[in-house]
Amino acid sequence: MRSILSLGIDIGGTNIKICVVDVCGGVIEKDSFPTQGNRPYSVVLNKIIEKSKQVMLVHKNIRGIGVGVCGPTNSDQGLLITSPILKNWSMVPISQMLSDKLNIPVSVDNDANLAILGEYKYGAGKGYMNVVGFTLGTGVGGGIILDGKIYRGRHWFGGELGHMTVKTRGIQCLCGNNGCLTVEASTHRITSKYSEETGNKENVQKIFELAWNQNPHALRSIDPFLEGVSVGIANVLNIFDPDCIILAGGIANAGERLLDVIVKRVKAKIFPGLNMYLKITTAELGEYSGAIGAAILAMESQV
Ligand SMILES: [Zn+2]
Predict the structure, then answer these.
(1) CA–CA dist 196, 153 (Å, integer)
(2) What spacing in Å lies between the alpha carbon of 108 and ligand 1's midpoint?
(3) Cβ proximity of 60 and 45 under 8 Å
(4) 140 CA distance to ligand 1 centroid (A)?
(5) Helix, strand, or coil (residue 85)
(6) How far apart (Å, rounded) are the C-alpha atoms in residues 278 and 58?
(7) Which of the 8 DSSP states describes residue 165?
(8) Long-range contacts of the stretch 200-209 (C-beta < 8 A, 24+)
């Protein structure tokens, strides 16, 4: 008997990632294509439907689809409520639109929730019950797993860790607030500060390298990022006291040095009694963690 599979789809601001996952979390196939999120959502969803049909023709034992999307999501109804990144995506019934055309159950959730669900189940959070994760990149997202379940809040706006205020009177965020973690600790903030300082453009990885070599411009450029992320993590630790904090996203791979610096700053901000339990780790599933988490959601929805 062939094993049951799920199709995970991660709709990001830039790319849509899809992967076929088996019941043990193994990735059978993966692919990605541009989102072009400025187009009407019906056009983007039709493209996803076409891709899904192609994949389902090859893998006939796919029994469910999971979709991760950027923004607060009503996962009972499979509805994206709003998105700060995808323009004009408001109250989009993703689950219904996809399942009507594909004749298969479709589950929907916030993309960062699903990335952390993936890590919780098969990555850096394996074996724990309470895990909080941050996705670091052009913006910051996050997900909270409490007692083995995604915490979504009463009105589906819970777990939006990127929109916690880490600096009063800070930079304006797309959500309307000022000083949200997602803008204070974005990669754009690092690169733009560096070009302000030096007149040169460098990528984030290079700026971190320069900073670790004590380049003063690079050190000043990464400081707001380090402070924002550390404040965010410390807040979460003091509120939830989870088993571990997971840092995901390309920037989390800026080396052990980054982790060391963040740990040091976090320790200075949390209850001293928590220091001995502090566990901050980097994600293990890579850039497809959201799509893998989406496939897991689909699998769990069928149980
Ligand atoms: Zn915000």
Answers:
(1) 40
(2) 22
(3) no
(4) 10
(5) coil
(6) 45
(7) B
(8) 204/250, 204/251, 204/254, 205/254, 208/254, 208/255, 208/257, 208/258
Strand partners, 136: 140
DSSP state for residue 148 in the 8-state scheme = T
- How many angstroms separate the alpha carbon of residue 135 from the centre of ligand 1? 15
**According to the model, what pLDDT value does residue 271 have?**
95
Task: Kindly give the distance from the C-alpha atom of residue 193 to the centroid of ligand 1, in angstroms, as a whole number.
Answer: 20
Rounded distance from Cα 63 to ligand 1 centre (Å): 36
94 within 8 A of 106, measured Cβ to Cβ = yes
Residue 149 is which amino acid?
Answer: K
Q: Kindly state the percentage of the chain with pLDDT values over 70.
A: 98
Whole-number Å distance, alpha carbon 171 to ligand 1 midpoint, is: 10
pLDDT digits (tens, 9 = 90+) for 158-217: 999 999 999 999 999 988 999 999 999 999 999 999 999 999 999 999 999 999 999 999
Distance 138 CA to ligand 1 centre (A): 13
**C-alpha to C-alpha distance for 34 and 45, rounded to whole angstroms:** 12
pLDDT reported for residue 27: 96
Given a contact cutoff of 8 angstroms between Cβ atoms, the answer to whether 69 and 106 are in contact is no
Report CA(161)–ligand 1 centroid distance (Å). Answer: 9
Output the pLDDT for position 2. Answer: 65
Mean pLDDT of all residues in 111-123: 96
Q: What's the whole-model pTM score?
A: 0.92
Looking at residue 88, its pLDDT comes to: 86
134 CA → ligand 1 middle, Å: 15
How many angstroms is it from 186 CA to the middle of ligand 1?
12
